[in-house]
Write a structure and sequence with these properties.
This protein has helices spanning 4-9, 57-74, 88-91, and strands at 17-20, 24-28, 36-42, 81-84, 100-104. The longest helix is centred in the middle third of the chain and has 18 residues, at 57-74. Strand 1 (17-20) and strand 2 form a beta hairpin. The protein contains three helices and five strands; from the N terminus they run αβββαβαβ. Strands 1-2-3-5-4 form a five-stranded antiparallel sheet, with helices on one face. It is globular. The protein binds guanosine-5'-monophosphate and zinc ion (ZN). Residues 3, 5-6, 45, 97 line the site of zinc ion.
């Protein structure tokens, strides 16, 4: 299996998991860009946000539900946080298994880089 996030979902790569259920896993990013930086992925492979469709809208929506729960658990909900979905080269996507970034613990800039 070539996809590293599929390997993580299969338990084949060591990550710090903060939440998991039957459809999604949340784990700490290996190169955190903020004091809290967590990736939330579907267990089943989806290339990226451009693959969103009627068939997978429930699982993609579930990532946002997990993000809200994890943000609360991490203590960043009150202060606010940022959710990011990168798509393709111009979007800055480097891993082609859909992942929702949850970033918090500092003030985010706008516009993003
Ligand atoms: P992208 O640039 O595709 O939106 O984000 C991919 C993210 O995955 C990056 O923030 C990168 O640090 C993270 N990442 C890549 N490989 C690994 C890994 O093996 N373990 C963990 N925990 N994070 C990873
Ligand atoms: Zn994958």
């Amino acid at each position: 299996m070539a996809c590293i996030f599929c390997q993580i979902a299969a338990g084949e790569r060591p990550v710090h998991i903060v939440y998991e259920d039957d459809r999604a896993i949340a784990f700490r990013d290996i190169h955190p860009q903020a004091p809290t930086h967590i990736l939330i992925i579907p267990r089943d492979h989806i290339d990226g946000p451009a693959e969103a469709s009627a068939d997978n809208e429930a699982v993609i929506g579930h990532l946002a539900v997990v993000a809200a729960r994890v943000a609360a658990d991490e203590g960043i909900a009150a202060g606010g946080y940022r959710l990011v979905l990168n798509q393709g080269r111009n979007g800055g996507q480097s891993v082609f298994h859909l992942h929702l970034h949850l970033l918090g613990g500092r003030r985010m800039g706008w516009p993003p880089g």
